[in-house]
Write a structure and sequence with these properties.
The protein contains ten helices and 15 strands. The chain is of the alpha/beta class and 302 residues long. The protein has three domains: 1-81 and 169-180, D-Maltodextrin-Binding Protein, domain 2 (3-Layer(aba) Sandwich); 85-160, Periplasmic binding protein-like II (D-Maltodextrin-Binding Protein, domain 2), CATH 3.40.190; 181-302, ACT domain (Alpha-Beta Plaits, 2-Layer Sandwich), CATH 3.30.70. The strands form three sheets. Strands 1, 2, 3, 4, 5 and 11 form a six-stranded mixed sheet that branches. Helix 2 runs parallel beside helix 3 (60-69). The model has no long low-confidence stretch (mean pLDDT 90).
């Protein structure tokens, strides 16, 4: 079985996401960088890390680890609905909680609820399950923001349920490996990073124009500091299609040759049906256009 690292300890949302994988051995790690480094050095076969949350957006530790610190490839994505609960020992009530611990993103996702607790301060933990463990080991009236799985594992009770500030909360996790690119399915997404040689007017427009000219639909565009100096940014981009598609390969080659340095982060199956419908529409439009131009070229005099 493949050894798959995830942000531990057991009971984290990463653990829940990893439990949906078949024929793998889950390995709890202390941090997201530890997961990514483990895959890079071969001590882990794969890593499952949170990439994006519906409320808080991109998980910086993951995207920066993929962009700057490791040469890994996204092979798959998993979308996990997230429900946050206030976990504490038996007998502790929300009004008596003096400290709330959790991972930074979880705390932000329920900031409004936590503000209603009259005595509580907040403290960041390395993961939601690590917060649950610390609460279980403490004799203080503390609480953790985490999952029901964590409550069961560490002997806690959910003293308040579904405390996230917005409904429809979900986290997108990605499975990363060292070299293998997932096979095209017809419903795929590609992730890349574009590094500009120089900041000049129209540079982003020129990059985006390559995608627009080929009817490639961008699903995400985010600037990230390159850590080389203030005002120096790169662009993380996601778009519909697979590197095995001729139109995608042509676009990436064009970018690399003329505009920017491209780091390839992976082509992988998409969760959901929207991209498939869009690609079928684009494919049909391209076939029709090809037939039209060929009908004209066939009339060229020999």
């Amino acid at each position: 079985m493949a050894r798959v690292g995830y942000l531990g300890p057991e009971g984290s949302f990463s653990h829940e996401a990893a439990s949906t994988l078949e024929n793998v051995e889950g390995i709890a790690c202390g941090s997201i960088p530890e997961v990514l480094v483990g895959v890079s050095n071969g001590s882990l076969d794969l890593g499952l890390v949170p990439l994006e949350n519906a409320i808080e957006g991109t998980v910086s530790a993951t995207i920066d680890g993929l962009v700057f610190d490791n040469d890994l490839v996204i092979e798959r994505e998993i979308v996990l609905p997230i429900h946050l609960h206030l976990l504490a020992k038996r007998g502790v009530s929300p009004s008596s909680v003096t400290k709330v611990l959790s991972y930074v993103h979880a705390l932000e996702q329920c900031r409004g609820y936590v503000a209603t607790l009259p005595l509580a301060t907040t403290e960041q933990a390395t993961s939601t399950s690590q917060a649950a463990r610390e609460v279980a080991e403490s004799n203080e009236p503390w609480a953790a923001v985490g999952s029901l799985m964590a409550a069961r594992l560490f002997g806690l009770e959910a003293i308040a349920n579904d405390i996230e500030d917005h409904r429809g909360n979900a986290t997108r996790f990605v499975l990363v490996g060292r070299e293998v690119i997932a096979s095209p399915t017809g419903n795929d997404r590609t992730s890349i990073v574009c590094f500009q040689d120089a900041d000049r007017p129209g540079s982003l427009y020129a990059i985006l124009g390559r995608f627009a000219a080929r009817d490639i639909n961008l699903t995400k565009l985010e600037s990230r500091p390159t850590k080389q100096g203030l005002g120096d940014y790169c662009f993380v981009m996601e778009f519909e299609g697979h590197v095995a598609d001729d139109v995608v390969a042509d676009c990436l080659a064009d970018l690399q040759a003329h505009l920017t340095r491209v780091k390839f982060l992976g082509s992988y199956p998409v969760v959901g049906e929207g991209a498939q419908v869009r690609r079928e529409e684009v494919g049909e439009a391209r076939r029709s256009a090809s037939e039209w131009i060929e009908s004209i070229r066939s009339r060229v005099r020999p």
